[in-house]
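note to self: the first set is below, dont mix up w the second
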Amino acid sequence: MKDLPPAQAGRRAPRAAGVVTAGAVAAGLLTAGSGPLPADANDTPGIHLSRTYGAPGDEVRVSGGVPGSDKGTTALQALRRGRWVTLVRGRHHGSYALRAPLRDGVQTWRVLVDGQSTPTVRLRGVTPGPYDPPPGPVFTAVAPAASGTDLPTLSTDGRWVAVRGARVPLLRDRLTGRAEKPWAQDARPALSPDGRLVTLVRRGRGVLLDLWTFATTPLPRPAGRRVAAAAPADDGSLALVLVDGDGLRAPFVLRPGDESPEQLAPATDGTVQAVLASGSDTVALTTSAALTADDVDEAEDAYLLLDGSPELLDETADARTHSPTLSADGRRVAWLAESPGGTEVVVRDVGTGAELFRHPADEAVLSGDGTHVAWRDGDVLASSDLDAPTTRSVAVPDARELAVSGDGRWVAFTATASPIDGGATPSATWLWDRDAD
């Protein structure tokens, strides 16, 4: 991870004001959080931050106006273990400006002006990377085994992992070991490859949350559709699956700057999936709708859309293809192909059309850099290097819901039996380090 710039020089423009929207609160997706807030009444001191995130030790300038007073005292405070701790004191002359350094992780600040509190604001200190620890251990629990977590999602570098939890919804920074509970326990998270954005879907609604600026944007629901699934790219683009009033599903894409999402295929009553490569017009999706003339059966099929033009990934008659995944640059695509002979994972080079890998698998996912594919066949969990080619595998009963880091080193999975001792557990999320002995 590179050095972090100040907020105004970040990699993407803010997508929404820092205040949690009424729709997000009503949906119950977030448990807390807002960015800089203005004064909400003429007699309330305002508060403004020069940045909402940075590396620990980076200085943040906190300033604001003081209505109805030309001088007095100020105190910048941080909430720590349930108590307000004063970071710095000062005086104001109708306005104030205080400075303090960031700490690692999320922190809540406020300013006391003549004993009156401003609205609270949230900030995040992100320890710079890179994240590249030595190998081992072979298996690591993302959360306590009894916590009931599932649906893992990983950042490209393997540093950030997010899970849905029956008891402990979790975002973990594996570099610092810090864990947070930033959303409702049954919201389904999906991280962007860089780990900065997360979509949260719950009960037909969803939000896009910037974990550094705390900006939240409700996911679009044109014509009252419900959100079934969502996944963000680094640039804020979104792949969506939306459900209409008749229960039919359709894939959509929302790109930065667009007011409404683009529908990619007709709505159907079958399985619909969609994934989007970062910063490109390459989309992979699953639908039972026929998007090309060579799709002559009614089975679900995986398609690749290049600049809006659909291409059937597998032309085998009566084959069911699904679960596509893309490399972050859109240059490689993987999918599952079901036929009477069994289910296989297939990986293809998008540019040349060359098949790079084929192997029996019940589940598979392509790494962010496109160099590895993680797959499961029965009780065998494996990570295959597509360029070497080599495969490393391990026996894990009941592994499912795979996620993989960018280089294929870490594979996240859900299991109801411990991969360490085989003991039964509630649904739990684990990480396998492919490079461990």
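second set (the one i keep forgetting abt)
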Amino acid sequence: MDIKYKFVDLIGSSYRNGPVRFLPDNFSLLCANGNRLKYFDLKRNTSFTSEIQLKCNIIAFDINSTGTHAIVGDER
């Protein structure tokens, strides 16, 4: 199966080699975008940035196996 996705707006001015994680549905992913998390729905070709904003840039995050909770670490 040959799948090719084009990432749009993933590597912008605030993206600094942060982690990228697929959600359990395998059609969505989260990436650290500065001090917020950005959600991409690869099936519907949509994205949005979370309203929650940290004081520092996100350097690490992980999600639970059901995709309902995330733990986030910043530069502090």
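remember for set 2: Residues 21 and 51 are 19 Å apart (CA to CA).
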